[in-house]
């Protein structure tokens, strides 16, 4: 059986441990924050939409919510929706596929 993959390989699934945030970079230089929430992997733009803090470097993941430590704004990483002030602009999200223990981001 042939599997068609429309995405960029960002690494093996073990590089994205549960409850953690890791960085990834797309071919055009776009930086992502990649989250493992209960075994499911999600990807968003790396920069907080409030003040451009790096969520992969400085964000704190609790369940499906990432908190930005600059001003304590929060987002739902599964949808990108802002969930806590001062963040009001959603994070861009990127679809993620895990195929045979490899993680791909559609781009
Ligand atoms: S920079 Fe993220 S909440 Fe202000």
Automatic annotation (TrEMBL):
- What is the protein named? Uncharacterized protein
**Similarity comment:** Belongs to the bacterial ring-hydroxylating dioxygenase ferredoxin component family.
Entry keyword annotation includes Metal-binding: yes
Q: Which SUPFAM superfamilies does UniProt cross-reference here? A: ISP domain
Q: Which species is the source of this protein? A: Bradyrhizobium macuxiense
Mention one GO molecular function: dioxygenase activity
Q: Which UniProt keywords apply?
A: 2Fe-2S, Iron, Iron-sulfur, Metal-binding
PANTHER family (UniProt xref): FERREDOXIN-RELATED, RIESKE DOMAIN-CONTAINING PROTEIN
- InterPro entries from the xrefs? Rieske_2Fe-2S, Rieske_2Fe-2S_sf
- What cofactors does this protein use? [2Fe-2S] cluster
UniProt keyword annotation of Acetylation present? no
For this protein, the record's PROSITE patterns field holds: RIESKE
């Amino acid at each position: 059986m042939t599997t068609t993959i429309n995405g960029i390989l960002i690494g093996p699934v073990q590089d994205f441990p549960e409850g953690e945030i890791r960085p990834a970079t797309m071919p055009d230089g776009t930086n992502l924050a990649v989250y493992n929430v209960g075994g499911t992997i999600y990807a968003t733009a790396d920069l907080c939409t409030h003040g451009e803090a790096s969520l992969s470097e400085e964000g704190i993941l609790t369940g499906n919510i990432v908190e930005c430590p600059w001003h304590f704004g929060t987002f739902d990483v599964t949808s990108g929706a802002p969930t806590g002030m001062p963040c009001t602009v959603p994070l861009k999200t990127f679809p993620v596929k895990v195929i045979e223990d490899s993680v791909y981001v559609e781009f």
